[in-house]
Amino acid sequence: MDLRNIAIIAHVDHGKTTLVDELLKQSGTFRENQATAERAMDSNDLERERGITILAKATSVEWKGTRINIVDTPGHADFGGEVERILSMVDGVVLLVDAAEGPMPQTKFVTSKALALGLRPIVVLNKVDKPDAEPDRALDECFDLFANLGAKDDQLDFPHMYASGRSGWADAELDGPRKDLSALFDLIVDHVPAPTQVAQRDAPFRMLATTLGADPFMGRILTGRVESGTLKVGETVKALSRKGEALENFRVTKILAFRGLTQQPIDLAEAGDIVTLAGMSKATVADSIVAPSVNEPLPAQPIDPPTISVTFGINDSPLAGRDGKKVQSRVIRDRLMKEAESNVAIRIEDTPGGEAFVVSGRGELQMGVLIENMRREGFELSISRPRVIFRDEDGQTLEPVEEATIDVDDDYSGVVIEKITGPRKGELVEMKPAGAGKTRIVAHVPSRGLIGYHGEFLTDTRGTGVLNRVFHGWTPHKGPIEGRRQGALISMENGVSVAYALWNLEERGKMFIGAQEQVYEGMIIGEHSRDNDLEVNPLKGKKLTNVRASGTDEAVRLTPPVTLTLEQAIAYIDDDELVEVTPNAIRLRKRYLDPHERKRMAKAS
User: Fold this and answer.
1) How high is the pLDDT of residue 236?
2) pTM above the 0.85 mark?
């Protein structure tokens, strides 16, 4: 059967997974009476809850005798490690752009990777039926983006379509019939080249592993595109590392191919197809699975280095072990090593004591997703404040800089520019009206300056602003950047919080806990209204007397506490604080810093 391998690229919430739903429906992948979930490709619980794609996943549809393998890529740059490997499996990309917002930072990140690989894009302007859509402007911005990224002439001569993924139509003209997606299917078949690997069918078998998974029945499984040759179930192959070292010889126990949303067993894997193999015990991502006669590994796509690090430690608070079952450092280490094996964008290092582990990755969201998955699996952890990773080149210290694209109401643009270019040492790159009373601001800001800024940004813009960020490059160290301005309210007692005590503490600042919650000495229960830390007693009840007087029986009405999400808590804490994460709770607490660590922290900031 004729083959096409494509990846779909889009910014977060531009409608990529919804469009794939419609492609699956209209290609006849589902029966007419088959019950299907919305956003069928978002199979992970966190993906469904947050509405973002975290893991790259493949599916397959048939259209007029051609099998189209479609890879749904993550839209957030924090999961770019997935994207870089996945793009090596495809021969073309569909760039999905919101007709109102135009190309956004995450689009720019993934598109630059695709253009560097020589892939020719198809641009689909999605959501053109929205009232604020400006498809012509978005199309011009796509062309400018490609030109700025150094696209070749054949890549700049890209076809484009107008579409509404939710309504299930795509047309070459804006005023087209708006019936279905057949025009998009035909364009993919005509524009995307067939895999060149098909011509290598008679060569020895070679495949580059791009994703790692586990199956309760088959064990370890690896997915990738067959670069040459064919492979039958039961044949013996070997795994080579990126350096060409032989890792293991194994017998292939099963070959699976994507057919719709499911993977079905097949007897023969052919060059050009995307398949999953089972039977290995050591081979992992970026390794080459080859015939026994082959000794040269396939070139693996280099992965961008991590930019931030977070320390994962055991939970040693007084409430440790009450919620989770997995609390030992050995169990935490095994889980982190397992994560590093399948996610090549993160790096794990042991600390000298062996009780904590430094996890380096792309961004706070990537770390937040890993921690959230671990707490749902029953782990208890203590998490440090994220720290940026510096580089030394020619005797000069370099730090990572991110490109922040901010859409705010015109009234709040002044305060946003003042915050990012002042104390956070960012540089304003562009500022222009975005229509509908909004301003778009593009700035290059040190990663240190953006840690913890998102909550402050939402407060400054009354919750109406949108901030997107993507790694831009490295710049000479910009000197100290101040952290959180407010101090913390710290509990001085162990016990259960009392409503009367919290009511009296409200004038001191915002509270993070409510009444009848377990607290302990050193736990952060709120944010002080001033810049110093303050020890308070949340257990102090009302003194009872037999004297009646005016004003003694006031009703206690508490202001609802501020509930921090996991990402907000990690970004909020200071260098001498920790986030205590358990399956049922997220708490903040102070930690003791020895003089050496305090000195190192001061130097890093």
Assistant:
1) 92
2) no
